Amino acid sequence: MQEVSPDETKQLEGAPRTAAFPFRTNDSRLEIAPYLLLLPAMTALGLFVFGPLVQTLWISFFEWNLVNPARRFVGLENYAAIVGDAGFLGMIAQSFAYMGLALIGNLALPVGLALLTLQLSEREAELFQSLLFVPAVVAVSVGVLVWSWFYLPAGGLFNVALEGLGLPKPAWLNDPFLALPSVSLAANWKFLGFNYLIALAGLRAIPREYLEAARVDGAAGVFLLRRIVLPLFGPSALFLLVSTLLQSLEQVFVPIEVLTVGGPAGATTNLMYAVYQEGFKFFRAGRAAAESVLLIGLFAGLIVWQFRLFERRVTYER
Amino acid sequence: MSAKTARAPISKARSGVWLARVALSIAALLMLLPLIYQLGLSFKAPADIFVKPINPLPANPTLENYATVIAALPLGTYLLNSLIFSLGVTFGQIALAIPAAYALAHARFAGRRLALALVMLSMTVPFVVTYIPNYLTVAGWGLIGTLPGMILPLIGSGYGIFLLRQHFATFPTSILEAARVDGANVLQTLFLVLVPANRAAITSLFVYLMIASWNQLIWPQLIGSRQSAYTLTVGVQSFASGEGGSSWGPMMAAATLASLPTVLTYLLVRRGLLATFSDGAVKG
User: Fold this and answer.
1) Residues 6+ apart with CB under 8 A from A186
2) Which domain holds residue A284?
3) Sign of the four-CA dihedral B52, B58, B60, B65
4) Does residue A212 form part of some domain?
């Protein structure tokens, strides 16, 4: 990326510094350039991310159908109604179930595949990277359509195959217990490529001298993996863990919408999908907003954790 | 940077290499299988779809499904809408991200840490939380059912700012200072020095954002409430959940047509995209 040799940099650094940084005005204390540069982006973030965040909190105290100008202040009633709902605990449990399944299908699996890829030559590794990433570039909504055919109880690929083997044929997306893992599997298929790439990049950032030195000392196989690779891979793995958990509900969002619309009987919904359903299908904006707030509450720990991880990267740089 | 770091296999045992090869080949096959079935079904005659479904290859390949879809859906309109929507979101995000990333990477000013914190925080907000207020904003502007209404709220994103900031920060500040000493102003320094030096990263961010926005469904579906504003994903989804719901052949033909642009783009720019993506992942 850097097209400048170290020598050149050094020389330039010896040059007289008139200002601390490349923004100069007549009065260096009245530096407005950085603020002007940031203004458009920050305006957009304020208008479309942080403003809405505050607005959501406000809306959560109202009963409102999103269209009617009249809205009624109800205090914490929306929260009480959500928590008191018979389906609430199930919805929370399902949110955690999706997160747990993402840890298997979207963390353990891609990291395992990345470890295997390290064994191969550069060219072979590149081939597998390219192939495993293909589903990641297909639209989720479009890519999971074929899964609805796979899961068809009668005539779908999976049940035809199971029938051929003389095994029982489950109802997949219509089965209250299988529906959630089935939706999750389709989502994991679609998103595996991203984490596989990140894991591979993290593993490759381990200096090869460490591996070679350890090998010269007689380390091999599992020992090498446990004592050298995994500790050095730690920071990347942590980032992957947190982002996988944070993104798990976002990643199953569209598969739920396309495959089950939250059914059967709410068996595949989760806190994030419920926000969307309440708001835009049942037009209960206040309740949707209250669910948003609960969602952020559920994720708060993870959000802070991910923020810290981002921040660590920034301070490493400078 | 990553070119010089670990490329040494973990174990040099040949059995390990073969194990990896076999396992990864199976994984790659399983990953591609849904797309192979999608493609195969799209060429099967309706009568053949439930005959020997295990075999993805059509016994009597036909273009019938494609003809059905092309006749039923205004694909040209959808395609154009998808293109405008993706280009709008991508250019918008990059246009805001470049100057912001420059300031965050190379300037010292009061509030810099706060600005950076806000950018990072914005990346952790679940998208669905902002939908109702953003929908109301777009409605207030009278832009429901329009492409600008779809595009504008998505321009508020921290991802591009953070990614570019991380790349810009590796560029020596002293060079930028030298440009300033030579009389370049802030914008000249940015667009004549920093941006060209980070061409590769910006290009890959462009491709990544294009594919990501091309593939969006929920937001364009909420805002694009009339068929004339449907993007490809919205059009295909409305076909699949409505008239095309049980006609698997046409549905898979529509899915194939909708995936073609992103898959082809990916195949063309694969290397740069994968490199920047994993690079960006390690750096930020």
Assistant:
1) A144, A147, A255, A259
2) 85-317
3) positive
4) yes
Put simply, the answer to whether B35 touches A34 (Cβ < 8 Å) is no
Residues B141, B45 within the same domain: no
Average pLDDT over chain A, rounded to whole?
Answer: 84
Domain CATH for A291: 1.10.3720.10
B154 part of contact set with chain A, CB < 8 Å: yes
- Provide the CATH number for the domain around residue B261: 1.10.3720.10
Mutation test of the interface with chain B: which of A36, A45, A165, A208, choosing the one with the most B Cβ atoms within 10 A? A45
Contact B126 A296 (CB under 8 A): yes
Q: Could you tell me if residue B1 is inside a domain? A: no
Question: Is B259 close to A317, i.e. CB distance below 8 A?
Answer: no
- Which B-chain residues 55-94 have CB contacts (< 8 A) with chain A? none
Pair B255, B118 in one domain: yes
> What residue numbers bound the domain in which B81 lies?
69-283
Whether residue B101 sits in one domain with residue B144: yes
Same domain, B192 and B258: yes
In a domain, A107, yes or no: yes
CB burial readout B132-162, b (16+ within 10 A) else e: bbbbebbeeeebbbbbebbbbbbbbbbbbbb
A295 closest CB neighbour out of B129, B133, B172: B129
In this predicted structure, the answer to whether residue A21 has a pLDDT above a threshold of 70 is no
Q: Is residue B253 part of a domain?
A: yes
CB within 8 Å: B172 and A19: no
pLDDT score of A28 more than 60? no
Residue type, B131: Y
Q: Point out the domain boundary residue: B6, B38, B61.
A: B61
ipTM: 0.87
Q: 3-state DSSP: chain B helix, strand, coil percent, rounded to 5?
A: 75, 0, 25
Judged by a CB distance cut-off of 8 A, whether residue B214 touches chain A is yes
For B186, the closest chain A residue by CA position comes to A23
Average pLDDT over residues B223-235: 91
B54 vs A157, A212, A299: nearest CB: A157
How does pLDDT run across B161-203, given as a tens digit for each residue?
Answer: 998 998 898 888 888 888 888 888 888 889 999 999 998 889 8
Asked, for residue A25, whether it belongs to a domain, the answer is no
Instruction: Give the C-alpha separation, A270 to A134, whole Å.
Output: 27
Nearest CA in chain A to B217: A141
- pLDDT at residue B272 greater than cutoff 80: no
Inside any domain, residue A64: no
Residue of chain B whose alpha carbon sits nearest to that of A232: B6
What is the reported pLDDT for B46?
Answer: 83
Q: State pLDDT tens for residues A151-209.
A: 999 888 999 999 999 999 999 999 999 999 999 999 999 999 988 988 888 888 777 77
Contact A285 B132 (CB under 8 A): yes
Distances (CA, A) of B252 to A187, B38, B52: 18, 6, 17
Question: Number of structural domains, chain A?
Answer: 1
Binary contact (A197, B179; C-beta < 8 A): no
Instruction: Judge whether B215 and B137 are in contact, CB under 8 Å.
Output: no
